């Protein structure tokens, strides 16, 4: 049974619903997210399915970087360019390409740079085949990792983002992939801001034109298909704050660039940070069935921070969600619940909550009492 507890965030003033800060975009789908806290500052159809196009390659890179970290792949390894990679993703395919030569071997680092800078479909397929033997098996790895990251609205069938009705994502999930790459693999993040790459005598500029506009954008990935339109996942760091933005469903590269720029600029200027819960501060209590204590305190991992429109902290309501009843032993530090924060009934942030202490199994009297309670009330 899933329990929802309505709670009041500690703001120093009353909590009431108000409209999400006003912003208009031509994008069909959009999300603006604070990198550190995961606060969703702006959203437009953030959880509707979309065709991710080449933004799929962010998930491809996440798998590649995980394989490198695990020691199963090295940046200096060389992967073979198969006929499938050459024909499906090469120059004759008409899509974005590295111009890799058939039957050649290419270093993993060069393939990674091509996927990021040139959006090379051939490079993405070569990486998938080199790591997993086939693109289909690699897609299984992509979906396994997506589940670990917590991407609830995505399914991947290939490494490139080439159209497939069974491949889909959401704007929220794409932003979370961006956050994951920045957080987990800072040693590789510099590739995303490289202005150009040359391969096989052909020089190509970074398809994310925002990286050269001088507004602090240093990643991540663009995408386009005829059916989906133009989209991008971008990130900018200004001072000690980083934002991740997603726009998709636009009509041109120019429109994509402008809408992403506007969203990032607005987010950097219009919001302020506050902390409803300091490190170690109890957010709520969850019931424990048959435990040495009837409940367990729930805390965040460190402080819980949010971003709200400047001059206003009256945009919030919140619930704590957990599967009840919790069964002992509940170990200190175990993730047992989730804080869900809403602005005008729209989900803006989900934050995991952890047991603040260990609750062992209770004595016979406690277990009998809780059994009667469950029978009578059903833990409602």
Which key terms come to mind for this protein?
globular; alpha+beta; five-stranded antiparallel beta sheet; 380 residues; Peptidase_S11; Beta-lactamase
Give the arrangement of secondary structure elements:
Elements: E1 2-7, E2 29-34, E3 40-44, H1 57-69, E4 78-80, H2 83-89, E5 105-107, H3 108-118, H4 121-132, H5 135-149, H6 171-184, E6 196-199, E7 202-205, E8 217-225, E9 229-238, E10 241-250, H7 253-270, E11 271-277, E12 284-287, E13 295-299, E14 304-309, E15 317-323, E16 335-343, E17 346-355, H8 364-377
Antiparallel strand pairs: 1-15, 2-3, 2-10, 4-5, 6-7, 8-9, 9-10, 11-14, 12-13, 13-17, 15-16, 16-17
Binding site for substrate: 221
Organism: Devosia lucknowensis
Keywords: Carboxypeptidase, Cell shape, Cell wall biogenesis/degradation, Hydrolase, Peptidoglycan synthesis, Protease, Signal
Describe this structure in words.
The protein is α+β, with helices and mostly antiparallel strands and 380 residues long. The protein has two domains: 2-16 and 275-377, D-Ala-D-Ala carboxypeptidase, C-terminal domain (Peptidoglycan synthesis regulatory factor (PBP3), Domain 2), CATH 2.60.410.10; 29-250, DD-peptidase/beta-lactamase superfamily (Beta-lactamase), CATH 3.40.710. It is 27% helix and 28% strand. It has helices spanning 57-69, 83-89, 108-118, 121-132, 135-149, 171-184, 253-270, 364-377; strands spanning 2-7, 29-34, 40-44, 78-80, 105-107, 196-199, 202-205, 217-225, 229-238, 241-250, 271-277, 284-287, 295-299, 304-309, 317-323, 335-343, 346-355. A hairpin with a 3-residue loop joins strand 8 (217-225) and strand 9. Mean pLDDT is 88; it is low at 11-20.
């Amino acid at each position: 049974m899933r329990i929802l507890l309505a709670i009041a965030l500690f703001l120093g003033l009353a909590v009431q619903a108000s409209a999400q800060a006003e912003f208009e975009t031509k994008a069909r789908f959009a999300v603006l997210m604070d990198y550190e806290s995961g606060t969703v500052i702006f959203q437009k159809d953030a959880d509707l399915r979309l065709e991710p196009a080449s933004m799929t390659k962010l998930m491809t890179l996440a798998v590649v970087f995980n394989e490198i970290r695990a020691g199963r792949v090295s940046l200096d390894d060389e992967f073979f360019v198969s006929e499938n990679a050459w024909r499906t993703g090469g120059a004759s395919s008409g899509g974005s390409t590295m111009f890799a030569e058939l039957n050649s071997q290419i270093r993993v680092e060069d393939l990674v740079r091509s996927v990021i800078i040139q959006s090379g479909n051939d490079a993405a397929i070569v990486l998938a085949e080199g790591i997993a033997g086939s693109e289909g098996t690699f897609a299984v790895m992509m979906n396994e990792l997506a589940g670990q990251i917590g991407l609830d609205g995505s399914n991947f069938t290939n490494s490139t983002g080439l159209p497939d009705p069974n491949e889909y994502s959401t704007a929220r999930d794409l932003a979370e992939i961006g956050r994951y790459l920045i957080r987990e693999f800072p040693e590789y993040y510099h590739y995303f801001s490289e202005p150009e790459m040359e391969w096989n005598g052909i020089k190509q500029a970074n398809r994310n034109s925002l990286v050269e506009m001088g507004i602090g954008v240093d990643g991540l990935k663009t995408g386009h298909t005829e059916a989906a339109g133009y989209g991008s996942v971008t990130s900018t760091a200004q001072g000690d704050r980083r934002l991740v933005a997603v726009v998709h469903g636009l009509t041109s590269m120019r429109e994509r660039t402008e809408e992403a720029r506007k969203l990032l600029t607005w987010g950097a200027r219009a919001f302020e940070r506050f902390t409803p819960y300091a490190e170690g501060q109890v957010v709520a209590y969850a019931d424990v069935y048959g435990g040495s204590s009837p409940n367990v305190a729930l805390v965040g991992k460190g402080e819980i921070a949010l971003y709200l429109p400047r001059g206003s902290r009256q945009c919030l309501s919140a619930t704590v969600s957990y599967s009840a009843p919790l069964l002992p032993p509940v170990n200190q530090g175990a993730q047992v619940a989730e804080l869900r924060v809403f602005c005008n009934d729209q989900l803006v942030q989900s934050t995991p909550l952890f047991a603040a202490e260990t609750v062992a199994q209770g004595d016979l009297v406690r277990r009998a009492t809780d059994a009667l309670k469950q029978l009578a009330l059903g833990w409602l």
